[in-house]
Amino acid sequence: MTFLDGYTDLPPGKIASVVTFLEMREPPPTALADAPVSLSLRPVLQPSLDWYRKLYRAVGEEWLWFSRLRMNDRELAAIIHDPRVYVYAAHDGEEDKGLLELDGRSGFEIEIAYLGVTADLFGRGAGYWLMGHALCAAWESSPQRVWVHTCTLDHPRALSFYLKAGFAPYKRAIEIAGVPRLTGEVPKTAARHVPLIELL
């Protein structure tokens, strides 16, 4: 496969992001951070698809999380109902405010598939608190590694957040997909940091 330097035009209706893959080969020595604003973390066994999609949207809509929204019920249930996939919700006493999903289906590694909190918790330590719980849960089964990926559509501090948590980058890729604001998975008002180019 040959990659040429320079710009590559995208077809109408497509969006591209640079994806950075990061890994951790041994448990970090850090302790769990105190829970901000009385958050608690609860495992959600066999989550309902409606509940999952609602929280997925609440946490990820602004960052154009779309992959799970493109799945039909069967496809989504096959993942989040798999006994090797662990779904958690961060709860503030009234409603769910954060999503954590760990994927251990490979059998020897754990992927932090999704980790995020709602916008009202930004800057309050909720992300670091959730990451602490993610790492504790991920390393419980003594995997060979824990890995995660982020992209340039994500929160602008997402990459530095993962680096600070102890992850090391090992690969980059370009992801090209249909624009979720045009295909209907998220509203056109989402992701204000990514200009929307309307189809002609």
Low-confidence stretches: none
Termini separation comes to 32 Å
- Radius of gyration over C-alpha positions, nearest whole angstrom: 17 Å
Structural class: alpha+beta
Shape summary: globular
Total count of strands: 7
Helix content: 10-25%
Question: What's the average pLDDT?
Answer: 93
N-to-C SSE series?
EEHHEEEHEHEH
Task: Characterise the protein shown here.
It is a single chain. With 200 residues, this protein is of the alpha+beta class. Helix content is 23%, strand content 28%. The chain has 5 helices and 7 strands. A 7-stranded mixed β-sheet has the order 2-3-4-5-6-1-7, with helices on both faces. It starts with 13 loop residues before the first strand and ends in a 17-residue tail after the last helix.
